[in-house]
Here is the input.
Amino acid sequence: MPTPLDLATFLVQCLNAVQYGLLLFLVASGLTLIFGIMGVINLAHGSFYMLGAYLAFSLVPLFGEQFLLMLAAGVVLSALFGFVLEWVFFSYLYQREHLQQVLMTYALILVFEEARSLLVGNDVHGVPTPPWLAGGFALGGLMSYPWYRVFASVACIAVALALYWVVNRTRLGMMIRAGASNRDMVRGLGIDIRLLYRVVFAGGVALAALAGMIAAPLSSVYPGMGGGVLIICFVVVVIGGIGSITGALVASLLVGFVDTFGKVFFAEFSGVGVYLLMAIILVWRPEGLMKRGY
Amino acid sequence: MQLAPRLTALAAILCCAAAAHAQGTGPIKVGLMLPYTGTYAGLGNAIENGFKLYVQEQGGKLGGREIQYFKVDDESDPSKATDNVNKLIKRDAVDVLVGTVHSGVALAMAKAAKDSNTLLIVPNAGADAITGPMCAPGIVRSSFTNWQPGYATGVVAAGKGYKRAMTITWNYAAGTEAIKGFTEGFEKGGGKVLKDLNVPFPNVEFQALLTEIAAQKPDVVFAFFAGGGAVKFVKDYAAAGLNKTVPLMGSGFLTDGTLEAQGAAAQGLLTALHYADNLETPRNNAFRKAYALAYKSNADVYAVQGYDAAQILGAGLTAAKGDLAKRDVITSAMRKVTVDSPRGKFTISAAGNPVQDIYLREVKGLNNEYRSVAVKALADPARGCKL
Here is the structure.
């Protein structure tokens, strides 16, 4: 049963929606890059998110209060990991059918989960919030809002802007956009498409891992955490239009709003809202909101 | 006639085989169907350790007969449950099934046990239905129903004078059963549940619902979460500052096995369960010491449930002097037993579920410390059970 909302509560809920949407965007942007530009259905993307969270869990004790430094180290490590992974596994997938891609990336999920189980175990862990971001501020006498959530949103916006700049204003971005629309032509123009793919893939892994690291103190670090994220990210990518960064941003925010207000107003059907949104948008625009590469 | 002597010989063999069976000299085959991989692997191992500890204490025998173990990893996967349980029932021909942690898997086991007339002892899964609509003489549980800790928490919350409550859980069976229990206990005590909030399983984005709680300002919030979700919910609740304005209570799983990850956010939380970390009773201390000695790790509630599963089976087999053919003697003895459990003594209801004290515990450091008995000898209502 819908409950009436006062203005303050409504604004706080909007803040929640934006914050959730931004975090989704961070994971989904990597997925849409890989999916849209390289044409690989990467089910293992959720595992990269998990990788990030576990990286944060293992790196925080080493870096102590240097949270930003920790994030940077994690991004470098995960990008390297992505680079190697592309070279060893994914580079063999581009010419294959989607079924084979799904099989291999699903196998990778199992491998990553088992490796996680062997290396870190199956316990649930928490990652401490950095001391300089501890605490929160009062929000209209209603509740307190943690500073760390603000930091997470700001970090996501910063990454979104950086991505926009790279994709639209740099030579690398130009090649990425070109590769998304016509890979044969790009190759024909003498651009090393294999290296380009490797860089894009490493970037996608780093984005997902960064999202996992940023989310780790907010949430907790636990086995199978990538699964839920993967599904919702595919929803975002499909709504936004495969391969479109801007589309992913718009779709993430849409999903954030629908999910947040769905939970508040229609608690019993909260799981359905996002998928209903996807269905409606696909009927309206079967290709998603935005065109590939923008 | 050539055939006659052969037939005689065959009859003699069959006769001897039947006699051997009736005498019951061979070992009793116990099929352990537990999670040995995945998220619940730790729980499965603790249950097995607890079970074996009791059997060892009895000299490796229950009811005068050796125990032989067969193991199957159920992977906590309900879709494989029927195949897995049939490996034990059909391939290994076990006499007794013990399992499991996951409720969906346990329900499939209960059905298979009923169909094949195999004894089943459930050492964890809390689905109300196992000792409700699915109940059977051959099925006994050594743990709890989801309803029990929920109900006890409701009684405590109402006793504290809280009038308006909100509940929050994952939208799945265990959660809704716990919420039903809480609502029943709380409203019986004069309280009113304003609203049931839920998120789809295993979603962990709670911020919108926390805002909703902050806006409604209830007297108390009851939560049912476990594992990673429990950690995140308790941390988010504290981060929103709600722990200072609206007390949070829950079924014990909210803070069991999760305290290291929850850290400061969980301190002072009140939860209800049939076990606590510092029950300073001689029985519990002796059990914990023996367990630590045998397995080099600390016993937990799952180890206790495994240990008690073996006690219940032992009571049944002792009454029948190890003769599995006396099935009625076994099943009725398993219900008449007073189990001298590390958690405290408890009996078994007609439906096959423990009638047990539920404790109120408070989080102190990394322990769920015993505070008081929330409800004494609480029996599950066993709705839908015709026994």
